[in-house]
Amino acid sequence: MADFRQAIREKVLVLDGAMGTMLQERGLKAGGCPEEMNLTSPEVVESIHREYREAGADILVTNSFGGSRVKLAHYGLEDRVRQINARSVELARKAAGDSSFVAASVGPTGRFLEPVGDAGFDEMVEIFGEQVRAFNEAGADLVTLETFLDIRELRAAVVACKEFSALPVMALMTFDDGGRSVLGTPPEAAAVTLEALGIDLVGSNCGLGVEGIYELLVRMRSATSLPLISQANAGLPALRDGQTVFPGTPEEMTAYHDRMLALGVRVIGGCCGTTPDHIRAIRGALEGKDLSWTAPPRRCILSSRTAVVPIGGEAPCAVIGERINPTGKKLYSAELREGKTAYVRREAQEQAAAGAALLDVNCGAPGVDEPAALRRAVFAASGATAAPLVLDSSDPAALEEGLKAADGKVLINSVSGEQKSLRAVLPLARKYGAAVIGLALDGKGIPKTAEGRLQVARTILEAAREAGLPKEDVIIDCLALTVSAEQDQALQTLEALRRVRQELGLATVLGVSNISFGLPRRPVLSSAFFAMALEAGLCAAIINPKDERMMDAYRAAMVLLGRDLRAETYVEIYGQAPPPEASPRTGEKPLGIREALAAAVLEGDREGIEQLVEKALAEGIAPLAISSEGLLPGLEEVGRRFGSGQMFLPQVMLSAETMQTAFARLKPEMRKGDAPDLGKILMATVEGDIHDIGKNIVCTLLENYGFEVVDLGKNVPAERIVEQARALEVDAVGLSALMTTTLNQMEITIAELRAAGIEVFTMVGGAVVTQDYADTIGADLYAVDALEAVAKIKKLLGGKKP
Prior knowledge:
By secondary structure, the chain is α/β, with parallel strands linked by helices.
């Protein structure tokens, strides 16, 4: 283990190329299980490893990508997880000898975690843990987590690696050519989230050629100090003579070598379409190069699924919205006891719109199951905005539930200098990859002097380092005390801020409004103190971002302190028409029922949508009008925002689920009248492919728009699709594929539909499908994502249905 970590410091290692396509060339049948060949054809697997080693690979990746019990269950092999995964390590080791490292491969399960899917975090940790335990026992040198699409699933996989072994970990996500994962994660957020979990290398594989991977890694470098790993495809797939090929030549795979090395890429290999010839070229192109590299300084950056926020350094002070807190809020406290989240979603959206970069989430109220409430609140806030979260709880059990539910690297609020607090909180921060707020108080209370608070900060920093947290992820709260009781304490707080920054080099945070408690016209005093604290080195502020006086002081100070370059943010906010005097929601015209239905769909308000449908029915609105004039406009707006990058797949799925809730109530009413006949669509993942996430999303959205959908599932033979298309007299057939090895089944299926004389529209999609491929095989339409699929099928069938 130490040898691998030392090796990547000293030189750039070459990782091998594609396994699946080579197995297919050597006997793996379409629809077969690649990992089973570890048992049935071990000599074939070993020979592929040996060829890569002879081509110059320093790292051989095991044939265990689909070795989880979830994937193996598709072949009836779920009871052989340990045997298959251990054997994969043994075969790679035989080929590697003493000259190459063995990297145990783990791929995604094909399931999404809650709330996007139905998988639980602990469940996924245990599923991945089965593989990791087998790898560890069999003697793997490291684990490589590859081709992940969901950052939460990848978080669970890393936690499993850390919990069940001490092996080094490489973690890679797959992104589209727009620079996002399927669920909307950009490379910066992925890098921040994964670095915080303590992995050894971060990078990207699959989906793109070497130029696209390089661009992703440039963005990762902007947010991480970790070594990087590049595993590009040999170009983008194309159909030639009925076969899917990757046209990238070995020489093309080396075109970005110098730039990769300068960026800090320490492992370079290949993904789909790469062969021993490609790996040999990659090896040769490293000869004679300067392979030294110095990592850039680490920074504190927080992340959500879709965004990052730096803390400290030269970054602007981060505004932390404080209003998701039940103190003095009867409505929110009641919702917490009832298990509802409408307040959380609304406040998250309003505070983010008002300027909050981070959101503090607190669910501690009498009579509340805080662990369950914090989990729900994290899901709700993460679905409502892109802002990273601050988990505010003194209950370690609640913190752990919130950390499992989080999409990214959060900030824990908080830990104190007391040993009990340090022992309870710091291990959670290390395990789940979080930063912490350290309160400058201990068992003796809050020190009266700046020196006393500095000493507590030192204690917290030392404990954090011992727990494995980097210095940059400790943010000290120097504690703002009310000046109505102790007027001199304001100056002590400001002095503590300066000394923590200068002497300890740590970022700082304050709950600013505490300073004015008990005094009249609090915003006057709070905003003045806020400006003084910003000059003293405040890096993050917990405030009410909807308080205009506080935000005025903040924006002005950022200009004067040189943190708002060229006053761009200031001009953007104040260069327009003056803001209204009223609060964002005061004086607004109440929404009509149709607008309220649309807004509920847009916001993903599953809790409130059924009540709105009942209200609309009670007002005498026809079920069809409720759908077409209320619900569908909301979903159309979701589609517009998704297309413009304002919303991402998790929010789309939440809106779709909200639509389903509404339709479940409307369907009985529609049966009483004439429901529109929009068309019947047959959906299937083609034979040999066991991935159905994208297809399931398309099915859900089509049903929400009123189409009748027949879902045949995954791994469906062409003859069954033809048979069902004829028997059910469908209007369209949708085909999905994720694997390059199953693309040709789309062509076969469409050809058989045509040969059988079945006149239907055909639609294709999936991660490896392109418009050119769709045109080549004669598909009527191609969609890059689920919402585009819905829009195109509506247009396509519009002329056919009356």
